[in-house]
Amino acid sequence: MIDTTAVIHPTAVIEEGAVIGARVRIGPYCCIGGDVEIGEGTVLKSHVVVSGHTRIGRDNIIYPFATIGEDNQDLKYAGEPTLVEVGDRNRIRESVTIHRGTVQGGGTTKVGNDNLLMVNAHVAHDCTIGDQCILANNATLGGHVIVDDHVIIGGMCAVHQFCVIGAHVMVGGCSGVAQDVPPFVIAQGNHASPIGVNTTGLQRRGFSKEAIQAIRIAYKLLYRSGKTLEEVKPEIAEIATAHAEVKPFYDFLARSTRGLIR
Q1: What is the pTM of this model?
Q2: Domains in the chain, ordered, with CATH?
Q3: How far apart are CA 116 and CA 94, in angstroms?
Q4: How far is CA 248 from CA 10, 118, 165, in A?
Q5: DSSP assignment, residue 20?
Q6: From CA 200, how far away is CA 193, in angstroms rounded?
Q7: pLDDT per residue over 32-63, tens digit each?
Q8: 114's torsion region: left (phi>0), alpha (psi -120 to 50) or beta?
């Protein structure tokens, strides 16, 4: 079904069954599969491929040669009808690839709202990206990676499969992330290690001086005190009781499955 207000270039190929919403603009030489839904106001500039069972929300801008919903690269994948879900107001730049999920990994690759995926970024099968994140040029997420809200991943970074990256994290360019990164942390290097709290990012997002100071204290307990993780957990929990902003940092300690970066 194609809404009558959609504008579609005559060279675009749209398979029967695709759902194209109001005011969608599909440029030259785009290819849209029959199980695709594209929400109102989304723009596909040109040469964009959207395939598989893929749902794209409203007011996204997708640039030339991006590929969304194609078969993933997991050798176990046998063509099952797995999904890609993309939210609203994302900017997906040239040559970005977002692959569909696997049955073993839950079946869905998800991208939230208001994200910027720069040129040649790759989102592998079963990844979940939150809201207001930036993946810079050539950033690569392995399978099953979770990226929470307000994360910035620098150019040429690689994130190992199954890693979790907490909210408000900044990963410096050319880093290799092999373990989980707690919220609020700046990570850099190969393999990435913590180098401090993302103070500037927190200030820009409205965190108070008191909240940032509490987060810095929790960070120092974890990374500078010389104590074990089990020893610092009660102390960080106490800080989180007094400062709610620290609670995601404390909760992350239980979420981590690959161990924390050191």
Answers
A1: 0.96
A2: 7-144 (2.160.10.10), 203-255 (1.20.1180.10)
A3: 11
A4: 50, 27, 12
A5: E
A6: 19
A7: 999 999 999 999 999 999 999 999 999 999 99
A8: left
